[in-house]
Amino acid sequence: MTENPITDALVLITGAARGMGELYARRAVAARARAVALWDIDEDAATALAADLSRSGVDVRAYRVDVSRHDEIVSGLQRVRADVGAPDVVINNAGIVRGKAFWDHDPERDIEATMRINTLAAMWLTREVLPDMIADTTRPKRILNIASAAGTLANPNMSVYAASKWAMIGWSESVRLELAAHGHGHVKVTTFCPSYISTGMFAGARGPLLTPIMTPRHATAVAWNGMLRGTPMVLRPWTVKLSMALRGVLPTRAWDVLARQVFKVYSSMDEFTGRS
């Protein structure tokens, strides 16, 4: 079995037209993937990126897929299989954020849309690709799930977003354990849990104490390297682990005081505006 998960692989990326999705695509091309499938709801942006990256000689194709719909995931994957084959690497990158008090969320536009795009889409796509990944033992397979530090600690004005990422972390970790338990060690799942990243999605948010806002380039590099190694969970920066540890050992009220008054976690979304 070849040791490099990317060389000569088919890499499928959701939310691939811009931001971190674009950076993952550029890394796949630089690593000499056989083909890269760019999934995005913005077909024009995805097509333009595919044309740019195809100049490298790698077969890069754009697909308009609304990952909030299971039927579009199924039909999109059918098109990818017909064009370039079954994916060897899947990066579940697509996501949205709503930053407001829970009672201000619209049931469909905010709550349902967030859960569909941030959580269900990754589950649906992974469910569709796993049988082929499991059956093909000739090369390593990888699934990279982009979660968030918000899925490890509760935070005001992030209730629905946090719920979507808590669900992704629990599901992602369970799938990783199931694959190992059933002897499918060539398929490895990595869950990436970053704090705030300067992609525009979290415009206005402030990093808590000792927690700098990461650049997209740094965040994608960390997640990518973790995926290559098959690292189960990648948490960045280091304060994410520290906060998880403190929240785990301290009484809830004590943690609330620390998070609110010292680390400023609970006020980090006070000036959130998000991407227009």
UniProtKB/TrEMBL annotation:
UniProt keywords, alphabetically: Oxidoreductase
Q: Where are the transmembrane segments?
A: none
Into which family does the record put it?
Belongs to the short-chain dehydrogenases/reductases (SDR) family.
- Superkingdom of the organism of origin: Bacteria
Stored InterPro entries: NAD(P)-bd_dom_sf (IPR036291), Sc_DH/Rdtase_CS (IPR020904), SDR_fam (IPR002347)
How is this protein named in the record?
A: 3-oxoacyl-ACP reductase
Cite the GO molecular-function annotations of the record: oxidoreductase activity, acting on the CH-OH group of donors, NAD or NADP as acceptor
Q: Which organism is it from?
A: Microbacterium aerolatum
